[in-house]
């Protein structure tokens, strides 16, 4: 399951996803079976997709836009030598297209490279529908470099061949995967040698205890309330903050990326806003 | 060194003093191991290195610092470094280097500090080269420097390090501007401190008094001002830079000896004054 706004489990499991539907998993701080979780996710999600962007702005006080801009410019898609070489990018759990549209803008306009192609992948058709709708406002050249894929990130379809992608991004999605190691393995499979795995996700603010206290207060009191008032759905946003709480720390997640086979450069992650979010990067060795 | 206490401190410090050659060997060992194994090793090393070795103001034989670059970034940066004379310490040089090293263009984005990574590579590589060549540098001069004073060895090593900038000197002003940016300044200063520490260690300085600090501070100042002078030096073989360096080192020495003499005079006068007062019956 890689819908946004959902909690995660990191239990080891067999490679066949449907065989685990009776297994216990976490839904926020609750424990449910994976099949129950899927049903609840689908319900929750349809109601959330419409108000998703408005809610992001309210919950992060608009800062998520700065994070996303920084994330994309730090990856610098489309900057090739010689200029104009093709690049293939997969944006996983990118339903509403926030990251993908910025990638296209950066590559096509800032770097003048029209040969960059972005595939938006999401498991949830409701989120993809929002992304499709929003993509109609893009320039035609951007639309032609964009494709949509409904897929489970833990078992990507065989149409995504081994060693075929330059860049795999997942922004605020990976904590919702029920099996993160499997998703990381899939990322490793589809990336070219030297390809980059980049992940932006909520993380830990343990370095700054005072700020952490304020942030926790905001997460657990204000966000569910905003969800109730604006989206009319307190429970989904309660799950959101609980799933953030469950996500591993910066160094633990860095080690998970290394365990999937990626090489880590430097310390392997970069904190944003003191660690509220963090960007992790890994490179597939040659 | 008269008191046993001071002598013990001296032994202890000289045993744990910086050993750049040891660092060199650990770096190459890590670079030559396979990427898969070293990446997982590095994942565990990194956390400890950032917490422990960065806090140590000197290097120790027992705790060699972890290598500053992993295999992937070392490959990319080493290839990018060849493009610096033409393209400067720029993202373009890194992009070209990544391509030369066989990586796709996107891989340049994993370097955490962008163009500063390339500048830091230059600083680290030149510092390691100086450590590897130090014996040669100290022997090659016509006057046998092994018998000469520490001051002359320091001058020879500093000059050798300045010559390491020769190929990129026309790009060095840009690099200094990047190094002075607030987010990179701490790392730049740490590299400068490591360089002065290396030079004093290689010159065989064993002092453990407070001059340990003043020597390093003074050499850092002399080195960075000479480097700045060198960026505008058009004389053959950087003759004027060499003269500038020796003038600055001379000033540091004369200031140091002047301060020492003043201190000696003040101490003597105070002591004599106290004795005069005592002879007059003042109970001090």
Automatic annotation (TrEMBL), chain A:
Catalytic activity field: a 2-methoxy-6-(all-trans-polyprenyl)benzene-1,4-diol + S-adenosyl-L-methionine = a 5-methoxy-2-methyl-3-(all-trans-polyprenyl)benzene-1,4-diol + S-adenosyl-L-homocysteine + H(+)
Organism source for this protein? Hypocrea jecorina (strain QM6a) (Trichoderma reesei)
- Superkingdom of the source species: Eukaryota
Q: What does this protein do?
A: Methyltransferase required for the conversion of 2-polyprenyl-6-methoxy-1,4-benzoquinol (DDMQH2) to 2-polyprenyl-3-methyl-6-methoxy-1,4-benzoquinol (DMQH2).
Annotated HAMAP family: MenG_UbiE_methyltr
Protein name (database record): 2-methoxy-6-polyprenyl-1,4-benzoquinol methylase, mitochondrial
One Pfam family linked to the record:
Ubie_methyltran
Task: Kindly indicate whether the keyword Methyltransferase belongs to this entry.
Answer: yes
Gene this protein is translated from: COQ5
Q: Which GO terms describe its biological process?
A: aerobic respiration; methylation
According to the UniProt entry, which residue ranges have a biased composition of type Polar residues? Answer: 1-22
Q: Where is this region: Disordered?
A: 1-28
Topology class, membrane: Peripheral membrane protein
Q: Which Gene3D superfamilies match?
A: Vaccinia Virus protein VP39
Which InterPro entries has this protein been placed in? Answer: SAM-dependent_MTases_sf, UbiE/COQ5_MeTrFase, UbiE/COQ5_MeTrFase_CS
Q: What is its EC number?
A: 2.1.1.201
UniProtKB/TrEMBL annotation, chain B:
Q: Where is the composition biased (Low complexity)?
A: 17-54
Say yes or no: keyword Transit peptide present.
yes
GO cellular component assignments: mitochondrial inner membrane
Q: What ranges does the record give for the region Disordered, renumbered to this chain? A: 16-71
Domain COQ9 C-terminal intervals:
186-255
Major subcellular site: mitochondrion
The UniProt keywords, alphabetically, are: Lipid-binding, Mitochondrion, Transit peptide, Ubiquinone, Ubiquinone biosynthesis
Role of this protein: Membrane-associated protein that warps the membrane surface to access and bind aromatic isoprenes with high specificity, including ubiquinone (CoQ) isoprene intermediates and presents them directly to Coq7, therefore facilitating the Coq7-mediated hydroxylase step. Participates in the biosynthesis of coenzyme Q, also named ubiquinone, an essential lipid-soluble electron transporter for aerobic cellular respiration.
Which family is this protein grouped under?
Belongs to the COQ9 family.
Q: What is this protein called?
A: Ubiquinone biosynthesis protein
The source organism is Hypocrea jecorina (strain ATCC 56765 / BCRC 32924 / NRRL 11460 / Rut C-30)
